[in-house]
Amino acid sequence: MNSHDLRRLDNSHVWHPFTAMSAFRDEQAPIIVEAEGFHLIDTEGRRFIDGHSSLWCNIHGHRVPAIDEAIQKQLNRVAHSTLLGLSNEPSIALATELVQQAPLGLNKVFFSDCGAAGVEAALKIAYQYHRQKSNPSEKRDLFVCLEQAYHGDTVGAMSLGGIDPFHSLFGSLLFPAKRVPTPGGSRRQRDRNSNPPTGFAFRTNIFDSSRLLSETEELAELERMLEENAHRIAGFVIEPLVQAAAGILVHPHGYLKKVRELTQRHDILLIADEIAVGFGRTGTLFACEQENVSPDILILSKGLTGGYLPLAATLVTDEIYNAFLGDPWLGRTFQHGHTYTGNPLACAAALASLQLIHTNQVVPNAQRMSEVLRREMTSLTRSDPPHQRQTSTHARVLEVRQKGTMVGIELVQDNAELSPFPPEKRVGHLVTTACRRRGVILRNIGDVVVLMPAPSMPEPLVVELCQIVKESLAEISTLVI
Length: 481
Ligand SMILES: *Cc1c(COP(=O)(O)O)cnc(C)c1O
Hints:
It is globular and about 70 Å long. Helix content is 36%, strand content 16%. A hairpin with a 2-residue loop joins strand 13 (395-403) and strand 14. The chain contains 16 helices and 17 strands. The strands form four sheets. Strands 4-12-11-10-7-5-6 form a seven-stranded mixed beta sheet, with helices on both faces. The protein has helices spanning 3-13, 21-24, 53-56, 65-75, 89-101, 115-132, 155-159, 164-167, 185-194, 215-229, 255-265, 318-322, 344-359, 362-377, 427-437, 459-478, and strands at 32-36, 39-42, 47-50, 106-112, 142-146, 178-180, 233-238, 242-243, 249-250, 269-273, 297-300, 312-317, 395-403, 406-413, 440-441, 443-445, 448-451. It has two domains: 31-60 and 362-479, Aspartate Aminotransferase, domain 1 (Alpha-Beta Complex), CATH 3.90.1150; 68-359, Type I PLP-dependent aspartate aminotransferase-like (Major domain) (Aspartate Aminotransferase, domain 2, 3-Layer(aba) Sandwich), CATH 3.40.640. Pyridoxal-5'-phosphate binds at residues 114-116, 119, 150-152, 239, 244-245, 273, 275-276, 301-302.
């Protein structure tokens, strides 16, 4: 089928996620038919650098011989069999490997098939655990989460979400949660107030500027809240080090460690959602390692299979797992599961990917690429003062936020206030479309342009990716928008 016919059928029948379909129909977005290494290739034969790791999943590039072979080998044996009351070989091997690589103490693996499902499992495990532990607590029915958090789109995961355009519409469906400020948010705001021209700031509409806390005050407030509510709290859910979907918000060093201390003190489970940050993206295999933290529950998905197949894993400690043991008729069992739990093809891909992370030295490569990205991006934050006009038709980079190979470039109007663009200008989208014309696939989050190259991407491609992003930003910032 040619591009025209495919596009017609796509428009007739496919409802794309997180996509404004009426605008999408006119966009002539590429239809991907194959890939080669770090490039995606469309129906017209155009090649694009996969600049966002096919939505933050890909680790080693596409069509990696070792992963292709592992899947084919498994395909020659069995494609699917259930874990409900049965076992299969790849899921046993993968669980064993994950336990060895994960932070200390996480010895049991519960498989599911997407990030949100992994989060749901974690929430239900935490809730049930407190009712069945040796000193049971019926009252622990609340979860703590961060403002602007993102943990997936199912109703439970959404209840812990704080990204307004995604979550506010469904308010009455969601369960209540305790929200604490995004760590470092006040600092971003304060830096912006005292030093508007050079950036390192965050947009005003998100943080209440009348309440600018120091980092110590932020932690003291968190401590007080946990103390007051501890008897009600089942778990503290956090994206360690970086809130990715919030637009790459990087936490101050030490925050995660402090949360670990406080949760331990109050018998609150620390639930680390490493779905976005896991598998090398922050410069270590898992983000928790950087603060020497072992969570009680760890959720993995996106990069788990190297970006090949859907799979999630929820890892827990022996202490949690043991609370679910007992004679079957006692009702202590975890009554939860998904049909494709522990799918053998996905587990085989994940095993091959984990091996490649080691043999190909992917984590050290991610560390080097982190420096390359930093070097390439420094020229973006301008030091000249913003225009004094009330409104501006020009864009400028407010801030570049980065951790490892995760980069967020925030664009604002080039006026004295550095105010956000009205959403109808779709400035972030204009930049990613300009990148696409130059052969790079990216996805923006509002007016934050996100770069998420695979942690194993070689330097020349990372440099090319950055050059194209800079050219596209230059094009858009001089356009009258
Ligand atoms: C993507 C993501 C999820 C949801 O994963 P899905 O596979 O899309 O359900 C959850 N948490 C974080 C941090 C994510 O980035």
